[in-house]
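Anyone else keep sequences and structure tokens together like this?

Example one:
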Amino acid sequence: MKTIKLLLAVALLQISLKSCKQPSEETSASNWSLVLVDSLQVGHLGEMMLLDISPNQELFLTADYQKNTYFIINRNGEKISEINKSGDQPEAFGFAYSEMIFWDDETIFVIGSKGLKWYGLTGNETNFVPFNSEYQLKGIMRNTGGGPIILQDRGNTKILYRGGAVNGKRTEPGYLEKIRGGTLIDPETFDLEHIFPLEKDSRFFDGKFYDDGDLYSRLAVGKDFVYVTYDSNPVLYAYEKTHPYKLSFKRELRLININQSEGMPAEYVDYEVYLDASKGGLRNLQVDDRYVYLMYFEGIPKERLAEIEQLYEIDELKADAAYETEVSKREKRMKVFTLKGEELSDIKLPNFLDSYWGFIARDGFLYFNKAANNEIEEDFYTLYKLWLEQ
């Protein structure tokens, strides 16, 4: 097994990423840049994605969803534990409704179809709260930094996870009024409180119909605010971090080079769960004690999607490969804001960062998965640690 491997010499650690790229990959017209600080390499054959970092910064939690397996990795790049708790085996969580995260330095946590489940670092179940049948969540999308968030609410510890679409047809009157951007879960009882209703001036109230992917919410908890975005609504919302979470401010966003999702007339609405990774829009929302970070994705043009759909009728394998190639080469950008929502920069992210599936902001650093190599099957996973500076 390969263990940690520094990919750059110490003398190169402070070189800006933009100096390593071609001119066409310039990050920003401003002087903002991403600086590569460190990297971690783990021997692994298959797909792997960063989910969370332990509070003490000593451990990384990753997942290979094709193998239904989670991995605990230390700072030396060693897999210290492999955990597979899906399905119906003893101590299983059943189907995972959320990404797994660290509850503390010694415990990991997941919202599953059997209930709330806590495990030790070796996979032994340490706590269980039975599932609440009132919990409804349609359309799981796996992404780095998109898991539940531990939130102090009115002096109590709560679990904050995204809200989203509800049961019922999108054409039914009052459907949008039921949508919520987040769900507060009591970890001792699984009692629920649905928060962050759609603001009435959002684009979703334009008389058209939007699918579950358009309504997918992203959440980030800062010192004073809970920040909320929706994939197909170019607005950043900030709510007071005190009950009842009143809207403090919102920022209309100017998105560069986006194939924006469009609402559908009623006659074209598909009533099934529909999450389309090819759509352009907001993707990943993070915050630390310096900035708010919002990544957005260009999306695939409708004309190219139509060509790929035709290819599926001839050769599904080639169509899948063409789809993955299109997603990987489409532009990803990251907006940076002050904690009060003033936009500071809009940076084009380099292609070697797997920014489409998100990243984690932690203590002033940004952690990105390395982009997959679509031409060669690699037997290792790489994690990058970066610093944003002016």
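And example two:
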Amino acid sequence: MDRGTKPSRRTVLAGASAMLVAGCFDVDATPEATGADWRMYGRGPGRTRHVPDARLSRDGVDVAWERQVSASSWLPPVVANGVGYCQYANGLFVLDPATGEGPNVGTYGGFGRGGPMAFGSTAAYDDGVLVVPYGDTVGGYAADPERWPDEVSGLGERRARWWTDGDETGTRPVGGVATDVRWGATPVVSGGSVVGVNGFSNTAWAVDTDDGSVHWRYDLRDAVENVSEPLGLVVDESTGTVVVGVRDVSDPGLVAIDVRDGTSKWTDESGDGGDLGPADRNALAAGDGRVYVVDGADSDETVRLRELDAKTGDTSWTRSFERHRHNGVAVGGEAIYHLGTVGDRSSADEFAVAAVDRADGEVHWEERLADEPGFDFGVTVQPPTIAGDCLLVPGGDGLHALDRTNGEHLWTFTELVGTAGGSETERVASTPAVVTDDRIVLGMTIGLYGLE
């Protein structure tokens, strides 16, 4: 582990243009996030997936509303200022999470195909900014729920206020070749900055939420010479640390950057490769001055969970699990919850859930669930959500709720859908469980549900 590697060779760019823009508008800034918001993939910039004050029933949930669609491929919803933005293959719902009411905006071409959206507060606009990934290019969109047209085609340029790839910013799309971006590497919003990565140039960057002006840009190869791709991105706001997971040839590593000025803090190249497959999208979380990372261990049937100090990069503890696949982590209170699958390619997998003490890495409890990740036009590997005293696990048979204190199975929500052969099968829970004001917003196969 190398602390304090050389600072970015890129000069920090001034954000004066954003202040000038803000000064031209007589509006109130968009309110900051509240307990009801779920503004990005993972809920917050640390992707902890934790809603501490939620109160969910221990006896089951009812359908408050549903919206049916003809094609699924749901992306994880975001919720901000009482509005949910929920995208699927052919459209975007802009709705009230309490009632499910709101327009279904048709989307075509490249709009929003690069991964989950994020929402940021702005000083210049009272509706905030909806951050829409297009691979390595990101668009900052007007989010006003009352002004969405019937359809948004292509890049939806009439809705975009700015575009950036972390190097250039403009009012028209910028950047070059778009690369596939893993969900966990899509942008996060921290304070007045959108923080992201560019897989083509192997850089991390931060831009202003108001106008996309570049705050800083960091070449990841300054810290890890043989970076082949960024794997994930989180921000620990308590220490102001951006942590980027990277692949160094075959093994994963970590690069820590100061969120304020883009200078390097530390690097960690002690990751162990293995074959995590789609798990890379959910392999990082951060909060309370600590960083959690999942990588391979001594075989492709074992995963390793580590806790690191966000300030120094020092490893506090390590815990290994026999797992066929890593699905994700959620961090809350005294425990971190690891979700994986057990089994092998010749037999059906089933979920394995473990609650791990954040103080020392000891396992509080470990349970199995007779379900596995579903397949919904491709692999859907969804992470868990902590909601009050419940742990919510999306799977092939629907959404499961466990008691987070002991792993007891509380309930499963599922809906049956007819098959071509005349039988019925369970609908797949194909998004994380987004919890807002004690309501769950969940994408399942060909329907979006509000559960209460």
